[in-house]
């Protein structure tokens, strides 16, 4: 991935309807960050692809609910601020097809997915902050993303019944990454149960499981 100087992006690349990348290096000036927020606010409803790679607070979190026509959202942010999570919970991305976030809570992900309109093809989260309501997230996926093809999911507190329903209702799954959060005492049993569920309910097109 090429790292562009943020100021050069803003100065030399006009923001178009298909604009999809902000890549931030350390050392960018405050003036440049102000430019980002102003331009994003101005073009928010025209953006259909948005990718941001940064740490801390880069853009005003309040711009996120304005990105109402997004089809692809990728946030690669170490320790995503609670201020961004709160605005993501308020956001509605009805046309969303790709959702890729590095670090986020299960509750926020469920909020986002519950307000999509069945277009989502990919949900990928590198790491979940909190997994205390993963059952709700799994339910949100199989109720709202029946055509999903790529998925990463965390299973917590033995919520295998909901996972069975996901496999049965999401018949287009091709790639699946599963993280099972178990105690040492239950780890072997949980993996055995998961293996049996996958053997019985995995869609025929699911050929990549990790």
From TrEMBL:
<dbReference type="InterPro" id="IPR032675">
    <property type="entry name" value="LRR_dom_sf"/>
</dbReference>
<protein>
    <submittedName>
        <fullName>14199_t:CDS:1</fullName>
    </submittedName>
</protein>
